[in-house]
């Protein structure tokens, strides 16, 4: 095999994989487009789609519109093969106003690594009341590197408060915020199961943060807007739904003349030009995202 062939093969096998991510309702990368619950959330940085919340920025690995999930990756997150204990991981926390729209999936597990005995995780949870537990048959025990490395010697003879486990796995629901600084942890990992497939080896788990999104009213506003030729968006000042109907805006859909909110001289009968105007404002965006596979 020539060196060139070898290099090409290496690149194919080990470094990159690309995927097309479609940014569609309720998401958008432009202000005023999509649903207001997802405003200022997705950004395209050097052709990579990024997700930004109060705990930090994450790479978007996938958006599944059928199952209403997003899969995110934090480069400072550990996997079973790659342990990072520098305390730099984002963890996961969303702004309180965003919680009705975004939450980690119930079958997503967070493994908190090297947490200090004084961590709030272990306070008020003596013995069996510890929040650490297996989630969707995934847990810390699956990866020896999580439970036996690190600076804390584990002496498993007493109440966890005095001698905490090296790895504590939790579901997001049990603590509502993964903040490594506040929890006094050195690192974390996050994985999810692709139910109903039962995966026993942590090497074949899917690493990343699986987030579920939901749109209040089950998309009815947007369906009605699009069915009448409009494009879905929101009013950035009033933070309310807005249907772009070309030359005019509506708070319901493009058939409802009475709900027009438009500047003086807004027209009632949209011209062909203005119909395409709405699409022009909030066009569908397709990004190509290339990321490293750390395997
Ligand atoms: C995490 O907790 C620390 C310490 O309580 C705090 O200063 C920081 O703002 C928190 N981070 C986020 C994203 O809330
Ligand atoms: C998780 O499951 C493993 C194996 O099934 C078990 O050994 C371990 O005690 C469980 N851990 C917790 C925290 O429940
Ligand atoms: C419709 O709403 C958008 C965003 O708020 C605004 O920029 C535009 O001027 C509005 N159009 C009319 C005709 O009022």
From TrEMBL:
Residues 1-19 form the signal peptide. It is a single-pass membrane protein. This is Wall-associated receptor kinase galacturonan-binding domain-containing protein. Keywords: Signal. Residues 22-74 form the Wall-associated receptor kinase galacturonan-binding domain. InterPro entries: WAK_GUB. One of its GO terms (molecular function) is polysaccharide binding. It holds the Pfam family GUB_WAK_bind. The keyword Zinc does not apply. GO terms for cellular component: membrane. It is found in: Membrane. The lineage of its organism: Eukaryota, Viridiplantae, Streptophyta, Embryophyta, Tracheophyta. It comes from Papaver nudicaule.
